[in-house]
Amino acid sequence: MPAKTAVDQIMRDISERVDAIGRPVAVMEVCGSHTMAIHRHGLAAAMPSRRRLSSGPGCPVCVTPSGYIDCAIALAEKEDVMIATFGDMVRVPGSDGTLEIARAEGARVMIVQSPLDAVDAAEAQPDLDIVFLAIGFETTAPTIAAAVLEAERRGIDNFHVLAGGKVVPPALYALLQQPDLGIDGLLLPGHVSAIIGLDPYMFIPSEFGIACVVAGFEPGDIVTTGTPEGVGAIEPGDVIEVECEGIGTLSNPVIAMV
């Protein structure tokens, strides 16, 4: 089936299911990457009028409190300190200014591509304390931890992190407690879920009765991910089969984790 025909069919199926519910249906994508993908591929405009897409917590940079930026600016203004940060942090406003403005006024602010770049900078400049702005969700925590371990391995004692990491499930819990939220389902973040798994999200259906699903970032992932009607729970002893035309069938038995 041609791609456009398949997408048209999916949209018709979605429209029929929404019409069967008898009221508008609202789905929130949690991840900023999903938000960008939805708008890049025109999915929001293609959705049935009775299905509403809402954007959730988004990226960790966008929800960084001004107090954290104020602290980073104060550190950058010290004579023996250099701030190392990803480029998207320099324009985030604090209470009175940004790191970009502070750098223009003489503060030491270095743009890096990874936490390990900050470790290298600390090794190359032992007279400066290099402070990496550790912003991110669960996806960035492993790389930041790896940088700390690498600095310890190399005996670098002037590398520091200003912790500002966040975790997704508590943010969703706080969000779902809002009485006027009006959300029927959540599109969970793909990258974060690859790190933490599904168990941390179990409160969403159990406590709030809201459907949720993990999805990738391609258009087909976003519009088709879910459990088809009539599919039940997977039990030990079941066999999951995936058939690829021209390749064959892959069979995986389900076993219980002890």
Please tell me about this protein's structure:
With 258 residues, this protein is an alpha/beta fold. Helix 6 packs parallel to helix 7. The strands form 3 sheets. A 4-stranded parallel β-sheet has the order 2-1-7-8. A 4-stranded parallel β-sheet has the order 4-3-5-6, with helices on both faces. It has 2 domains: 113 residues, Rossmann fold; 100 residues, 3-Layer(aba) Sandwich (Rossmann fold), CATH 3.40.50. The model has no long low-confidence stretch (mean pLDDT 82). 39% of the residues lie in helices and 21% in strands. The protein contains 11 helices and 10 strands.
Compact summary:
Helices cover 39% and strands 21% of the residues. The protein is of the alpha/beta class and 258 residues long.
- Mean pLDDT, rounded to whole units? 82
Tell me the distance between the termini.
43 Å
**CATH architectural designation of the largest domain:** 3-Layer(aba) Sandwich
Order of helices and strands: HEHHEHEHEHEHEHEHHEHEE
Structural class, by secondary structure, is alpha/beta
Reported for the largest beta sheet, the result is:
4 strands, parallel
Annotation, overall tally of beta strands? 10
CATH class of the largest domain: Alpha Beta
Low-confidence regions: none
| Oligomeric state of the chains present here | single chain
Task: Give the strand line-up of the largest sheet.
Answer: 2-1-7-8
Share of residues in strands: 15-25%
CATH topology of the largest domain: Rossmann fold
Q: If helices are DSSP runs of H or I spanning 4 or more residues, what is the number of helices? A: 11
User: Could you name the CATH homologous superfamily of the largest domain?
Assistant: HypD, alpha/beta domain 1
Overall geometry comes to: globular
Q: Compute the number of structural domains.
A: 2
Helix content: 25-40%
Computed CA radius of gyration, to the nearest angstrom: 23 Å
